[in-house]
Amino acid sequence: MHSSTGTTRHTEADPLESGSGSLLRQPKAVWATAGASVVAFMGIGLVDPILPSIAKGLDADASQVSLLFTSYFLITAFAMLLTGFVSSRIGGKRTLLLGLALVVVFAALSGTSGSVGELVGFRAGWGLGNALFVSTALAVIVGAAAGGSAAAILLYESALGLGMACGPLLGALLGNASWRYPFFGTAALMAIGFLCVSLFLKPQPRPARKTSIVDPLRALGHGGLASAAISAFFYNYTFFTVLAFTPFVLNMTPYRSGAVFFAWGLLLAVFSVLVAPRLQKRLGSLKVLGASLVLLAADVVVLGYGDHTTAVVCTILSGAFIGVNNTVYTELALGVSDAPRPVASAGYNFVRWFAAAAAPFFAPKIEGWTDVHIPFVVAGVTAVAGALVVLVRRRALTHEAEAEAQEHAVEDSVSVFADAG
């Protein structure tokens, strides 16, 4: 993996340079879990192209429908404190299956909603299931994978990017007939994932030490981890302003909106898996992150003030900056503190997901208080705020990170899930 500091470090062979053979030759258990991961991440952007259709079908306004994201990520944030507690007691496979089962149930129920309130509630249950699944999936993939942890992490990040790209596409294809169909389609795909994981994944060993609910909060006492989490909080507000509010601004048919966010997701995948690691090697993680956040800020402001074509282009282009940011933030959270990496990641994600819940709620309200441009100005300001935290706290973000990262055992380092957004 790449160092989370401004320097370059190698702990194992780079899978991007050593060929894709080991990456592609994986046991069935790995492919089953990775496939389910794709579908799990599809659920994040699934509703993007059908938000206007949901609003029309349930007689709701933009602020009400945006709560689909707010409830989802608010529950996800709190669930970060529970995932380690659960998985360290019932094991990785059972945690995966529990998460998948919850997603199947609540995704199907979402499709039956008779009001926006019901749909928001069912999305909250979906968020709990997704948190249990994605927080465990990377550890399971690496534990069962061939070719080393770097290849397995690359496989998982590829699944994340593919899911973020395909979610809007599936939402558009099924949602063009009815906004309910994407929810039923996701439930069916996750049911298939549940069966595959049940059949192909062997029971996973439990960690030697059980994780408590407060361990992730204690981990945030480390200055470097707290700084990474605060910076990521500001960044995620920008990220989810784009994801949850832009569909209303573009006001396109499900097909067109799905195509826009599919292209956005492809850029996210390419830049997170292929471009970000190479930029980190050449420039250092903190420089890459700071520059990417500033460029994202400029992009979203232009998105807010440009004409329709400009807004479409800037929406797609934001995927590149978001992909870079996701990769660098993940590695910062994993390498900057001396806490066990699953615990550090849980604390980091607990903080940042609150912004993912806040942005969909506040963006439509800010528009109502002012005009359609200002939510994007606010999003630009929060991206710059994230960059300023990186600049001001750069010493805390690099202090002893390299030495601490080398002390982490490989089996510990892979017990944490990568970002989604």
Q: Could you please describe the fold and organization of this structure?
A:
- This protein has 421 residues and is mostly helical.
- The protein has a single domain, classed as Growth Hormone, Chain: A, CATH 1.20.1250.20.
- The chain is 78% helix and 0% strand.
- It is built from 19 helices and no strands.
- It has helices at 21-24, 28-45, 51-57, 62-65, 67-90, 92-111, 116-144, 149-175, 181-200, 215-219, 223-250, 254-283, 285-305, 308-335, 341-369, 374-392, 394-398, 401-407, 410-413.
- The two termini are 20 Å apart.
Q: Secondary-structure map with pairings?
A:
Elements: H1 21-24, H2 28-45, H3 51-57, H4 62-65, H5 67-90, H6 92-111, H7 116-144, H8 149-175, H9 181-200, H10 215-219, H11 223-250, H12 254-283, H13 285-305, H14 308-335, H15 341-369, H16 374-392, H17 394-398, H18 401-407, H19 410-413
Helix pairs in contact: 2-7, 2-8, 2-9, 5-6, 5-7, 5-15, 6-7, 6-9, 7-8, 8-9, 8-12, 11-14, 11-15, 11-16, 12-13, 12-14, 13-14, 13-16, 14-15
Number of self-contained structural domains? 1
**Gross geometry:** globular
Global Rg: 20 Å
Work out the number of β strands.
0
CATH H-level superfamily title: MFS general substrate transporter like domains
Question: What key phrases describe this protein's structure?
Answer:
Growth Hormone, Chain: A, 19 helices, disordered N terminus, mainly alpha, disordered C terminus, 421 residues, single chain
What's a concise summary of this model?
By secondary structure, the chain is mainly alpha-helical.
